[in-house]
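Lecture notes, continued. The same structure-token format from the folding unit now serves as the input rather than the output. Read the line below as a description of shape only.
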């Protein structure tokens, strides 16, 4: 068995998929259009996709599951700045003076996610 998608309930699947497509660099599904009840981003294999499904209720409490992202082309701090410029909001800054830690952000619908240090940053201490 493999994980095919991580599914996110949301108000506007197309717009949230568009945001995550910009964040990840993964393309949206060719079939997605504004107003559709679902939309998705397609990662490189074997990574599971992210599927966004419209639901009537809004997010009211902390996520029970969230994604931790590790940058591959930038440092953690560069990636945090880039993703905030795309529309994320700072939620909790857990960076430490020694360069460790992570940053918790909110996507445009308030879903939490974290950005950790890159492999290069981890290797350098």
């Amino acid at each position: 068995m493999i994980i095919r998608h991580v599914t996110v309930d949301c108000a506007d699947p197309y717009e949230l998929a568009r945001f995550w497509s910009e964040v990840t660099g993964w393309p949206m599904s060719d079939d997605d259009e504004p107003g559709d009840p679902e939309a998705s981003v397609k990662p490189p294999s074997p990574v599971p996709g992210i599927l966004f499904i419209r639901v009537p209720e809004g997010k009211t409490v902390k996520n029970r599951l969230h994604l931790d992202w590790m940058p591959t082309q930038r440092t953690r701090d560069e990636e945090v700045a880039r993703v905030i410029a795309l529309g994320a909001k700072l939620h909790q800054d857990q960076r430490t003076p020694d360069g460790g830690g992570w940053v918790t952000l909110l996507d445009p619908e308030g879903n939490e996610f974290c950005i950790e240090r890159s492999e290069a940053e981890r290797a350098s201490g």
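Point for the exam: The chain has a mean pLDDT of 95.
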